[in-house]
Amino acid sequence: MPCPPDILELGRSTWTLLHSMAAYYPDHPTLQQQHSMTGFILALGDFYPCQECAGHLRKELQRHPPDVSNAAALSDWACRLHNLVNVRLGKPEFDCSKVFQRWRDGPEDDDACPTGH
Ligand SMILES: Cc1cc2nc3c(=O)[nH]c(=O)nc-3n(C[C@H](O)[C@H](O)[C@H](O)COP(=O)(O)OP(=O)(O)OC[C@H]3O[C@@H](n4cnc5c(N)ncnc54)[C@H](O)[C@@H]3O)c2cc1C
């Protein structure tokens, strides 16, 4: 039986899901899709299973509500949110102009990554 995820594994997995959902979010989302994505992100603040992280997240969501207008805006918002956490933890900031390359398109060398979805 594997161990439950610690704060690091939980964080990496959550960022992977959040950035990937943002990268594959529509360029022209319907109102229903916008509400649905906003609800998903707000629920993270309510249910993220690390109390300290969730507390910080709720404060940041109040200060910087998610921009669900399109994939680029949502990806940039998620990148800035992640950078706030990076800075708080003493980690380097990520260059937000590279979010699509990191989470959707991959490096220019086509063979560098296995084909996915
Ligand atoms: C909402 C949330 C709040 C958190 N709060 C805390 C906390 O209060 N205390 C705590 O100890 N941990 C917290 N974490 C966990 C923390 O952010 C990291 O996930 C964890 O420390 C593991 O870090 P890592 O160095 O493996 O890379 P991660 O920070 O998990 O990043 C994974 C990958 O994302 C990419 N990346 C990095 N920055 C960005 C960015 N800005 N935009 C796009 N891609 C990026 C990089 O390629 C990186 O390898 C939180 C996680 C989440 C999801």
UniProtKB/TrEMBL annotation:
It comes from the Eukaryota. It catalyses: 2 R'C(R)SH + O2 = R'C(R)S-S(R)CR' + H2O2. InterPro entries: ALR/ERV, ERV/ALR_sulphydryl_oxid_sf, ERV/ALR_sulphydryl_oxidase. Gene3D superfamilies: ERV/ALR sulfhydryl oxidase domain. It is an enzyme of class 1 (oxidoreductase). Its EC number is 1.8.3.2. Coiled coil: none annotated. Keywords: Disulfide bond, FAD, Flavoprotein, Oxidoreductase. Residues 3-103 form the ERV/ALR sulfhydryl oxidase domain. Its cofactor is FAD. PANTHER family: ALR/ERV, FAD-LINKED SULFHYDRYL OXIDASE ALR. This is Sulfhydryl oxidase. It comes from Tetradesmus obliquus. The lineage of its organism: Eukaryota, Viridiplantae, Chlorophyta, core chlorophytes, Chlorophyceae.
